[in-house]
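Table S2 (continued). Query chain:
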Amino acid sequence: SPAESLVWLKGGWSLFVRSPGVWIAISVIFIVMLFVLGLVPLLGWAVVLIGFPIMVSGMVLGCHAQTEGRPLRVDHLFAGLKVHAGNLALVGVFYLLGGLIAGFVSVVIGGGAALTGYILGALAGLGLGLVSGVVLGSVVFSVTALWFAAPLVVLRDTPPLDAMKMSLSACFNNFGAFLVLGVLIYVLIWVAMLPAGLGVLVLVPVLAGTLYASFQDVFGDVPALPPAAPETAE
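Corresponding output:
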């Protein structure tokens, strides 16, 4: 039901308040990393979108650790590099392609200014940027095609294309909840940017926790990361 979106956001907040200091540190590093990646000449925004799922997956692994009673660590942000980094980068490529398609549609509808607004506005979805009307489309895209892609890759060892298909299917099966969630995220981005953007430091981990909470709800209890092979008796 649409009310599930509020339950997921509450779950994200609950994970944040368990370790707010560590989460804020992760947020700062996350935002700085996105900013630095964005400085890459000409292709910076593309590098950001490709690297984004890797860092998101790290935060998902941090949420997973918290729910298992293990401590959250700052280096969880980079845990995705150790688990299927290639597949996660491929998810980022799909995100990039989807974003470009949405951008070109914006050109057809609203002219070149809309494309510029999309490219810059996409960063607002990461808590960094410029809010434009096209951002809502970007948020809706990420909340459907790619919302579950990163956790499916790191927690279920799902191939990227299959992860996207499963994410789309899950979101359409829970369309009301995800429609409401997309609108709420859009509103929260606005609110987070008001206090000199400082609200983003809280919004980033809350959304990571929301992603994890919704994943648990939709896909059921997920197993821990693949266990080590059992020792054979000698």
